[in-house]
Structures are given as C-alpha cells and as structure tokens.
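User: Please predict structures.

Assistant: First:
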Amino acid sequence: MEAKTFQQGIHPHYNKELTNQKPLHRAEDPEEVLIPIQQHIGAPAQLIVEVGDEVAVGEKIAEAGGFVSANIHSSVAGEVTAIEEKNEQVVVKIKNDGSTKQKTNLEAHDSLADVTSSDIRDIIQEAGIVGLGGATFPSHVKVSIPEDKNVDTVILNGAECEPYLTIDHRMMVEMAEKVLFGLEAIMKAADAQKGYIGIEVNKPDAIEKMREITSDQSNIEVVPLKVKYPQGGEKQLIESVLEKEVPSGGLPLDIGVVVNNIGTAVAITEAITEGKNLFERAVTVTGAVNNPQNLIAKVGTPIEELIEQCDGFKGQPGKVIMGGPMTGKAQNRLDNPITKGTSGILVLDEEETKDYSEAGPCIRCANCVDVCPINLVPTRLVNLVKEDMIEEAEEDGLMDCIECGSCSYVCPSNIELVQRIKLGKEKLRAKKREQ
C-alpha cells in the first residue's frame, strides 16, 4: 500500500535516531515532586488536599473544576509540604517518602466485555486522562458524543512527526497490546465501527508490530503515512487517512471522527485493566545530552533530574525545550516540572538555537504560504495583528492556525510568525471576553 499524506508541510531534520531504538525504561523517582493543578485545556482542578496531608501514589489531590477539566493525582507517596504559585499557577509540592503505597477509586477489569460505553467514559474521567500528544484536551470529553453527532471512525495518531520525539514509536513496538486495547476502548466509548492507526513509514518496526497485533481485526486498519511534518496534526491526519477535510472552525467530530494519541490509548488501557490513574508518562529526553533516553517518569519530576539521569548536558546548552523543536516551549528554569502534556525534553546546543533578534523584513517570498498545511497566509495574519486589526485576522483564518511552526521554519527573514499569530489569538480572546 502506498504511503498516504496531506497537502503542503515541510521536511525538517528529524534526529530520531538518537532514541528510536532505545527501549522505554523507568526513571528514578524524585525526592520531591511539584504538581500543577492545571495540566489540561479547560477549567483548573480544585484542590482537595492541604499542607501536612499524607497522600499515596495515585491518590486524587485535585478534582476537575468542570466538565472540560481533569482530575489531578499524586505521583508519589508522601507529605504535602507546600501549596504555592509557580509560573503563574498553583502547584502542590509533595515530599517523596520512598514507599509504594497506592490509592485509587478505580476497579480493574479483565476485558472490555466487563464495561459499558458509559463505564469507559467514567473511568477515563476519574483517571484524569488527557491528550498525551501535547494538546492535553480532557479525553472523556472527546468520547462524550453529543446526541446530534454520529461518530463512525476513531484514528490513533502514531505519526509522531515532531522531530526528536520517539515515545509513541517505542510504545507501539513494546506495548502493542495496550495500544490496541485502548483503541478498542475508545471505539466502544464513542460507538465507532471503524478504527485506524496512522504511522509514518520511518517507523517500520512499529508498522510491522501493529499489523501483526491487528491481523485478525477486520474493523481496524494500520495506515502507513509519508514522513512529513505536521503529519500528526488532527486535521492533517484525517486528510491523510480518510481523504476528508475538517471544515474551517470545525472539529473532527463534525465529520464523524475522533482522533487520539498512542500514549492516550495506553493510559486508557491501564486505567481500565489496572485501575491506574494518570500520574506518570513516557518522555523522550534527547538532543545535547550525553545519553538520550526514553523514560517513564512521574508527573511533577523536575526537568533537571531527568537530564541528570541522562548523564547531563553534552557541551554548552543553548536552549532547553519542553516538547519538540517545532511546537515545544523553551524553559526559563530547570526546576520546572514535567506535566501530563510533556512528551519530551529537548536540549539544543548554542549552534542549533535560532536567534530571532536578527529577524529581517518580509521579502514576500511566499515560502510560508507554500508550506502552510491549513492554506493560510501567515504574513498577512501577522500584519493584521500588528495593526490591531483582530477581527479582520479572524476572518482570514487566525483561529484556524494549528501553530505547527512550519511557516517560521522556512522563513528566510527569521520572522517570529507563529509567536505573533499566538499573540493575535490572545488579543482576540481578550476582546471577546470584554464583549
């Protein structure tokens, strides 16, 4: 079968060879974790612990603050030593006592026959599961299908198109059964009849393993995808796999599709079969470190501890990014903790760090237009934002931008296109709040 793809996009240096053959292994637990109570899109969770409380691994420390929100659980056993503000949000500091004492409100189920669609949604919600590809949208919301919608298809995103990151690749190779079970659980929760797993062809071992594990599943298909960024974007993945287009301003749900990440599927499996809440996740630690690795790490672990477990920096670091180089966020402190949305920790050396202070004027080359997977005109959006013409920018598709960074990557003038578009979105949201 010919590998599928979408229109436009780019081919950055992927650098996945640093970790794509390195198996997942468990990181050492930190002596102390710092757990933010908002690790998801939507309303912040509401604290239910106080300083001095003793908590167990997996115990709930904050309850969802609404339907579009997520529970937060402790990743270690120990004492709550502080509740403070860090990076403009509330965090819970817990001192690890080294014990393995666990607590959960979930029961373990042997098979999907033991749970209803409603049960699955409730389990996902109680476990605090969110999109682990980085979007962190509460997963129970995605599979709570409105009465006026009809979902017939679930797509698992195994593209992992972001450079450097390899955790989804390793999970498909090492945890194929959990990936498949999670897909089937999502399909049951959404009442979908057809499932797809889209995987870029630079992961042949993952394609082989997932085809092997799904060989007797007539309603599940593994779809090879061309290696291109952002192949893993929801709309691009749907275009590649189904040759369907999500309408401007719309959601995959509008065309009967639910898209989930590989890691999310594994977390759903563990919640159903083990009664496990989401308090740890797989993280690729890579780039300019001496021993790049794929680690399963506790939420709340400081970045610096994981870098140290990879034998420290290799040379002089220029930038430390939480996530990948295209969509990740540069960090101003190494004691910042990983969260549910942390797919990677990337260290770039000084030579790899792009200096936007040297940005020049737009030369009207149209490179950004040629690569935009949404068919926007990024420079026009940026100019409208600069002139504070926010409504006009909205009409031109400001909110359709998926912030993939393709335009910034190809800009010969080093213009901060994505950053300025993000600023425009914030201005638009602020204006709507005022209204």
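Second:
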Amino acid sequence: MRDVTHWKYAAVLTLAVLAVGCSSNSKKELPPAELVKFDAEVKLDEQWSRSVGDGQGDLYNLLTPAVDGDSIFAAGADGDVMALDRETGKVLWKKDLEAPVSGGVGVGSGMVLLGTLKGEVIALDAASGEEKWRARVTSEVLSAPATNGDIVVVQTQDDRLIGLEASTGTQRWIYENSPAVLTLRGTGAPVVTNNLAIAGLSTGKVIAVDTQRGLPVWEQRVAVPQGRSELDRVVDIDGGLLLSGTTLYVVTYQGRLAGLDLQTGRVLWQRDASSYVGVAEGFGSVYVSQASGTVEGIDERSTSALWSNDSLARRELSAPAVFSSYVAVGDIEGYLHLLSQVDGRFVARERIDSDGLRVRPLVVGDTLYAFGNSGKLVAMKIR
C-alpha cells in the first residue's frame, strides 16, 4: 500500500485537477462558465427516480450504476447496494455491506461486484443480494471490478491488476506495475474478454494480460510524460477503457486520445487530448469530455475534430454517453446536457441533482440513467 506522503500528494492533485482550466501556477481560479441559453429541441421525461445511500459520499468517488438484463444495480459510498427493475424503478433487493464502497458497480454472470476503501472485493448474488464472497487485495479499489464468468479482475489504486476466481474470490494471479510518482486519485475499470484483461495505468500505458495466468500479452504507451514538474508530467488513464468491436478506445490526462487494436495493442489512430473521465463512441465518431470542459466530436477515420463545444468550460464534466442521436454529459451543478452528434449544439438540458453529476450517464436502449452525487438515480427518456 502507498505511504502517507504519496496519498497526500494524490489528494492534493485531485483538487488541482478539479480546478480544470487553471495552470499549476494560477493565482486565481476561474468559476464554472455560465450556462448559455438555447431553444430546446427535445424534451427529457423522467420515468422514475430512487435514492441510493449517500451516493458518491464525501470523497471523489466514481460509483457508476450497471445494468444486467432487466435490473439496474447501484451503490452508495456508505455501503448501501440496491437492485431495481430498470423499467419501473421497483426495488428488488437492498443490501448494506457495512463497508465504505469506492469501486463499482461491476456486473456479470449472476454477480454484482464492488470494491472498498479497505482493499476488499465483494461479490453479491445478482438475484438475491446475498454475499457470495469477500476477498482482500493489495490496496483500495477505486473502480468497478470486471468479470467474464471465470475470473474477476480488479485494478487497485497502486496500479496492480489482480485476478480472482469468480466462484470463490481466491486469488489466481497478480500483475505488478510501478505507479507514477504523482497520480490522480482513481483508476479506470479494467476490460475483461474471454482471454484478455486490459487496464489503463497511471503511467499512460495500456496493458493486456491473459486471464488464465496473468502473463503479459501486449503493452502500449498512449502518452509520454512531459514537462518540468511532476504535476505537468501526470498522464493518468483514469477514465477507463471503452471496447467497441475490436477497437479499444482510451484517453489520458495531459496526453492522447487513441484507438488501439484489441488483440495486439497496435495504435490505429491518435490525437492530442486531456481527459480524466473517458470517451464515448458512435456512428463512426468518438466523443470526449476534455479536462477543460470542452466537449469534442472526432471523426475516427481522419482523427480531425468534427465539432467542438466550449460552452461548458470548467464545469467538471462527466464522461460522455451516446444517447439516441445525441451526446449526454453531466456537470458539477447537476445538469444533464444533450448535444447534437452532428454539430455539438445544445438540444436539451435538465437538472438532475444539485450536488452534481460526476459519473457517466448510463444508456440502455431508449432509456438514460443518471446517478447524481447525492445518490439520486433517475431514469429518463426522450419525448
């Protein structure tokens, strides 16, 4: 586990990153940009809403709901976990883990997976909420564990990738990495296929290991640290990885946005970018919430920007999500914004949670689920 000094550095850096748009030597931070007025072109209708524990809690957690079949699962930092019918919002079960949840929610193969600040991975039965097992790992878990049904893979805050038996939680393997000297507080969730476990690291690299033994298959550097200070050299991959077909999409803080070949790690395309929340993909385009608050649509074939909307500067945006013909992002004041995929213009806006919307909206079919920082979970459809 990291020493206290490193943890303090990480905490300080989190605050620095949240003051996006300000350089490390700025004397005064600029406030979030005022919202611009526009004529709404579509209407977001609330289908249902529920309160889930204390939501993201007092720390900079990124607890994102997950859907499996007809159920949606969500967790609060206080340890409350809920399963709900995703169409009606009816509570199917509720569980108090009696532990501070900091990583989640992962679902698959009949399991709900969560990580804690105490360095535990917890597996619940998806149908009943009963605890199946609890496993100790090397440090706090700040992202959702992932599974393919045979193995559960978790990335810890100290940049280790750990494989656990899905049936028992027994450790199968551990892949060691040396974290960067200074990092953002957080990690992206790993991606697990039938034979690969892939993760983005604080050093700006993406690694792939085989799921059976944890042996390296490929490694690709996406960003090279640059600058004179350690703060300038931070190139964390904190927004997670996005897998679409055989292409793996990744973006780093103060580095690059890239598309990688899943099997080989070969860079298919790349361009400069800086984001700590992640990307979305749809209709041959990639969408990114930049650390500055600018939202961009990028043509995957030419890697050129199709459009750029900087009206949400310094509003600490969530990762984007593709919703129908639109791109959805949340912000620090709890507004959900819909932008056109064609030109990035605003088409709708709805305030969800006055405490903010930090995590990526979750889209399943014609329904968008937004999970506010206070724990408000809302299902919405476009009218």
